[in-house]
Amino acid sequence: MNPFSEILNGKNPNRxxxxxxxxxxxxxxxxxxxxxxxxxxxxxETPQLACDVTLMPVNLLDxxxxxxxxxxxxxxxxxxxxxxxTDKGPVFQTPxxxxxxxxxxxxxxxxxxxxxxxxxxxxxxxxxxxxxxIGFCGGPLTxxxxxxxxxxxxxxxxxxxxxxxxxxxxxxxxxxxxxAITIEYARQQxxxxxxxxxxxESNCGNIPYSIYNQIFLPSVKKVCxxxxxLNRKFFYFAKGIGAGISTITPDVCDYISIDWQTDIYTARKxxxxxxxxxxxxxxxxxxSSENQIETELQKYKPFAEENPKWIFxxxxxxxxxxxxxxxxxxxxxxxxxxTR
Length: 340
Ligand code: 1CP
Description:
Strand order of the largest sheet: 1-4-5-6-7-8-9
Shape: globular
Bound molecules: coproporphyrinogen I
Distance between the termini: 15 Å
Strand content: 5-15%
CATH architecture: Alpha-Beta Barrel
Number of strands: 9
Order of helices and strands: HHHHEHEEHEHHHEHEEHEHHEH
CATH class: Alpha Beta
């Protein structure tokens, strides 16, 4: 049986499942070919193309799971924000900070998410039964930073961060709206066939952790509860959470996916014993040589032996300039080295 499916069914596989964040887009030569013909938006919004790209890495890299080809920013779109994907990243035409009361500027239109459910239907009918499909959404903070600031410049969300810190009541109101539509989105993905669900909080470290805990973590718990109510496991990627990992309780997630900045053995010690770990190979190492990749993989071998439910992944998305051959080598070697 596929080791990822075994884990989803509560079993201990004979090796950890292997997959990458951002495995579908970015590094696949076949994806780059398609991008010459279609824009990212067309790929994402045409169900058959989104289905084809979702299944590409499973076929080309031999990863143990497929992740839906979409983006975390479809939720802002479904809340009425105008979004463009430019060469410099996503850009909102009228970011929420342009409104004098951002908390009143949202207009939920859940029908804008329909094409994603159609893509899932196709994926389910076309994938091998053995390969689980990961559904996903963005985390409430990450989504809000993009919505407020309007730019895709990953690390620089200063105005949005300032707004959140200075307008906590208004922030709570926006988070409530984002949470409600996210819950419906998660439920629909699962009803259409997603085997587990993942929330990408890629900017968890951008605000003081006490504010994150107070305003955003309750939202994550609600999404987790909705996913569990449909008997699916909930995965929480929390980039930049650092030692905050020690405050995560089992009502937040079944798995926490950690970035490379926290040593995985330390993370295991800090984390609640009922929560499992996914992670956390530094994606930069995939830019080096096969020898170096193998040396770094060996460092995780004792972790594989001690943690039968560990899922092997990168500590963040695979970098766009990663050589495809290195990614392929990485999957093959990880499977070999970590077999128990
Ligand atoms: O030009 C292109 O081909 C578009 C680039 C691209 C792709 C392939 C964007 C724009 N989004 C995606 C797909 C995507 N995004 C997936 C699908 C699966 C896959 O590629 O394997 C997923 C899971 C995401 C999630 C996402 N989008 C996150 C969270 C994960 C992470 O890496 O931190 C974030 C922050 C975004 C925002 C986003 N979308 C796209 C860009 C360029 C950005 C800005 C951040 C970035 O550079 O990644």
